[in-house]
From TrEMBL:
The keyword Magnesium does not apply. One of its GO terms (molecular function) is ATP hydrolysis activity. Residues 5-232 form the ABC transporter domain. This is ABC transporter ATP-binding protein.
């Protein structure tokens, strides 16, 4: 299998902070979308910073499109489109002026494609970027990221703060982008409904550590939560329990195959599980 992105045992510490990335490993197969989720401060932006080399990792390896990136590896940078939450460009420029600047930066800058995105995103070419709304700024950032023909798109909280209609429009553009087998997306987001729509894989990070990386279909269709009454808890075999969480009158148990659990534990209520619930269970639950 070809990977657009492969992290192996990446560690990173900050001076004066207790936080560290703890041997972060995951791999994004080419042609797919990976959602990167974790609570505030879990280490998503730090991981993305290490991938993009805006931060220096302490150890581990990061391969992008099969190669480890170095500071002078311009070709790889050309192949990565990046969208951050927040101000991406100088506000005194217009989209038209920005395109001129970008054509000097990126070898494969495609002004026609950029103009097409500007048109379909209903952005004004002449208006100064500082007068754009948040949603407009985000669409502009996405247009720029896509217009130099990247193979890998990295979005850090890019859809946060956007209304559902605008998010849906952006998700459609992302789906179109990834329709080409050569294109891949890493998307960090707190909006798990967006990830449920477009992600092929979900990677969960907690306290700087990867706690689960799985296909979305497996999470949505096979993972489940057993709602156990007090006496039922004892029936569940430890190897079936990923994590458990005691509630007032029941214990929730996360399992990786609800069909098997259903047959094995008749009488126990089993629910399908959302990405949010899995995350809550992984973060707040206990291991055996
Ligand atoms: N320059 C820095 N110096 C010290 N600590 C830092 C620095 N940058 C980030 N941190 C710490 O690293 C931890 C992880 O932060 P990071 O921004 O990677 O998390 P995140 O998962 O992206 O969070 P959020 O969802 O809130 O954006 C936090 O505890 C943060 O305070």
């Amino acid at each position: 299998m070809n990977y657009a992105l492969k992290l192996n045992n990446v560690t990173k510490t900050y001076k004066g902070s207790d936080f560290s990335l703890n041997k972060v490993s995951f791999a994004l197969p080419s042609g797919s979308v990976m959602g990167f989720v974790g609570e505030n401060g879990a280490g998503k932006t730090t991981t993305i910073g290490c991938i993009l080399r805006t931060l220096f990792k302490d150890s581990g390896t990061i391969e992008i499109l099969g190669t480890e990136m170095t500071d002078d590896n311009v070709e790889i940078r050309e192949n990565i489109g990046v969208v951050y939450d927040g101000d991406n460009f100088p506000g005194y420029l217009s989209a038209e002026q920005l395109s001129n600047i970008m054509s000097g930066i990126f070898k494969h800058w495609d002004d026609t494609l950029f103009q097409n995105y500007i048109k379909s995103f209903r952005l004004s070419k002449k208006q100064k970027i500082k007068t754009y709304s948040k949603g407009m700024t985000m669409k502009l950032a996405l247009a720029v990221a896509l217009s130099h023909h990247p193979k890998l798109l990295i979005l850090d909280e890019a859809t946060s703060g956007l209304d559902p209609v605008m998010r849906d429009e952006i998700l459609d553009v992302l789906l179109e982008f990834v329709g080409d087998e050569e294109h891949s997306i890493l998307l960090s987001s707190h909006i798990t409904s967006d990830l449920e729509k477009i992600a092929d894989y979900i990677t969960f990070i907690h306290n700087g550590k990867i706690i689960l990386t799985e296909t979305k279909d497996n999470l949505i269709y096979n993972y489940g939560i057993l709602r156990c009454k007090e006496k039922q808890v004892e029936l569940i075999e430890p190897e079936d329990i990923i994590v458990y969480r005691k509630r007032d009158y029941q214990t929730d148990i996360l399992v990786s195959n609800m069909n098997i659990a259903e047959r094995k534990y008749p009488g126990v209520v089993i629910d399908h599980v959302t990405i949010d619930e899995i995350m809550l269970m992984l973060v707040k639950g206990n291991e055996i």
